[in-house]
Amino acid sequence: MMETQNGDKQSKYPQRKFFHRKKFCRFCSDSNIRIDYKNTAILNNFVTERGKIMPRRITGNCASHQRELALAIKRARMIATMPFLASDSK
Ligand SMILES: [Zn+2]
Known about the structure:
Elements lengths: L25 H4 L10 H4 L12 H4 L3 H16 L12
The protein binds zinc ion.
């Protein structure tokens, strides 16, 4: 009911256009998704364009799933389905 100052841009939420910041772990909320190192379609959602694993703050995963995910990504790298780093700079 009570509307806080909507015209004010300095609201509580700084409108980060990064990702939809779901606080729920995607794997916990959706049991259909399985963390699999062969499932690069899923894994790709959790790496940056350069192939780095996204931090938990951004993905919103829980600790155990984030661990599992990181492991899967590393495994995927091993069998070369995913790049270590997309760019060869540095
Ligand atoms: Zn989880």
